[in-house]
Each structure stands twice: as C-alpha cells, then as structure tokens.
Amino acid sequence: MTRTIWFGRIGLLFLVVSAMLSLMSCRGTNLLSKQDEIQIGKEGSAAIEKEYRLDTNPERVALVQEIGQRVLQGMRQTEGKRAPDFPFTFKVLDTKEINAVSLPGGPVYVFRGLMEQVGDDKDMLAAVVAHEVGHIVAHHAAKQISSSILADIAISLGTKGSAQKVASIATSLVMLQYSRDDEYDADRRGILYTHAAGYDPEGLVRFFEKLQKLEKSPMKGLLANLRTHPLTENRILRAKKLIAQLPNRQSPSATPGQ
Ligand SMILES: [Zn+2]
User: Fold this and answer.
1) What end-to-end distance do the CA atoms of the chain give, in Å?
2) pTM for the predicted model, two decimal places
3) Per-residue pLDDT tens for 222-232?
4) Which of 60, 69, 148, 206 is 20 to 30 A from 129 in CA distance terms?
5) Helical ranges in 52-179 per DSSP H
6) How far is the CA of 137 from the centre of ligand 1 (A)?
C-alpha cells in the first residue's frame, strides 16, 4: 500500500518535472502567478529597506514618483492589454551608490547617488525608471526564478509550500544578474515607454554616456552594483538605432508646442 502511494508520487513527480523541463526549454518561461510575483516583490522590498534607508528628501521623492507615474502611463499605452496589473511603487534609497533596481510585481528603487548624477535631466531619470519598469513588465526576474526553483516546485507539490519557497528566495533577488538579452529588452521597452510618455528617449543614451565617463573617474567604485546592467558599445548603438526608428520622432531641439 505504502509502496503504491510512493510509486504514485514518484510517477507524478516524473511527469511534472518532464513537463516543466519541456516548458523551460522554450526560453524564458514564467511559471509564477501574478500573486507570486507580487509576494516576491514585497519580500524583496522588505529586505532592501532593511539594508538601505529610504530617502526622505521631498523633492527627490516627488520627482521619482512623478516620473514613475508618467512612465506607467507610457507603458500602458505601449503594452495595451499586455500591461501587467501590478502595484508599482517608486522609491529613493538614501545611498551615494549610483544604481537603480526593480523587483518582480512592481517595486522600483532609484539610488540617491544616481539622482545626483543625472541632476535636473528628467529625460535621463525617466530612461532609468522606464528601463526598470521594462524588467518588471517583461517578467525578467520571474523567468529567472522560474528556472532556478524548478526543482523546488516539483518537490513541494502536494505540500502547498510553493508560495513560501518562492518568497524565501526573494532576498537573493537583489543580487540577481540579468542576461544581456534581458538588458536589451528592458532598454527597448524603456525607450518605447519614455517616448509614449512624452519624454525624450535620448535620455537613455545620455545616461549611458554619463556611465561611461563615470567608469573612467574616481567615482567608479560607486558603480559596482551596476554590473547587473553591463554597458557595452553595442548596447548604446542598439539604443540609438531604436530611437532613430521611433514614429513621430521629434528632434530634441524642436520647439515645444509647435
Ligand atoms: Zn537592467
């Protein structure tokens, strides 16, 4: 009797694992539900806000929130029905590091050091925020998590523990490294969202150029975490090409209102 049940369990696991493996062989499958992603984002946020202090400077906080909301409008316009219904949040971390991160399900963090570098160039800041929103919309982290927790999900079948296991890996999300293709995809989405939102998408190119200068400066150390966003000549060229192909592209020097 026990043996039959045990065999049944193994048989079921085998079937599920084979089904999942065949799913995973199609590149980048997201096995997480909307609620899983939101839960992971919440856990990740708690971990980040434990590690860093939130910036309370009212101007910086208001600016990031204003840009975040406008980028979201651009995202919804661009994605239409594909736009995920996530509780997006936009916060500033009080640290001199030059970085920005996003978590599945909605949280976006911009670091104070990055805001100090972009100064009053809202297009540059919008490009950074839109890139992060692009990672969330494309479920990039969720797809990576899906592949890494494949075994966990199979093992926890029948124990109702998958949501907890999913949440327990949230803390390692901050260290997550995106593939080059995911970065290109987030750049492409960010360009479309900022353009739709009425920002100058060239802000992304200006941000890349700023990073290139910083990489050669004594402030290089503050960029350590941007290794999750590798900057290559090819990435900049791709961004320029995408921007040149945008419909109704106005020259950045065009007089507003004309
Ligand atoms: Zn990125």
Assistant:
1) 81
2) 0.80
3) 876 565 556 77
4) 148
5) 58-79, 112-118, 122-137, 140-148, 150-156, 162-168
6) 12
Angstrom distance (rounded) from CA 107 to CA 120: 23
Q: What is the pLDDT of residues 177-219, one digit of tens each?
A: 788 899 999 999 999 999 999 999 999 999 999 998 888 888 8
249 CA to middle of ligand 1, Å?
24
Tokens representing residue 126 in the block: 């919008």
Centre of ligand 1 to C-alpha 118, Å, is 17
Which candidate, 129, 106, 89, 91, places its Cα nearest to that of 35? 106
Q: If you measure from the C-alpha of residue 1 to the centroid of ligand 1, how many angstroms do you get, rounded to a whole number?
A: 53
Residues 33 and 80: their CA atoms lie apart, in Å, by 20
From ligand 1's centre to the CA of 7, what distance in Å?
45
pLDDT digits (tens, 9 = 90+) for 67-118: 999 999 999 999 999 999 999 999 999 999 999 999 999 999 999 999 999 9
Residues 6+ apart with CB under 8 A from 157: 12, 13, 16
Q: Which of 110, 126, 124, 119 has the alpha carbon at shortest distance from 73? A: 126
The CA 182 to ligand 1 mean position distance, Å, reads 7
Between the CA of 121 and the centroid of ligand 1 the distance, in Å, is 20
Are 133 and 190 in contact by the 8 Å Cβ rule? The answer is yes
Looking only at Cα atoms, what is the longest distance across the chain? Answer: 81
Distance, in Å, from the CA atom of 252 to the CA atom of 158, rounded to the nearest integer, reads 57
What is the CA(80)–ligand 1 centre distance, in A? 22
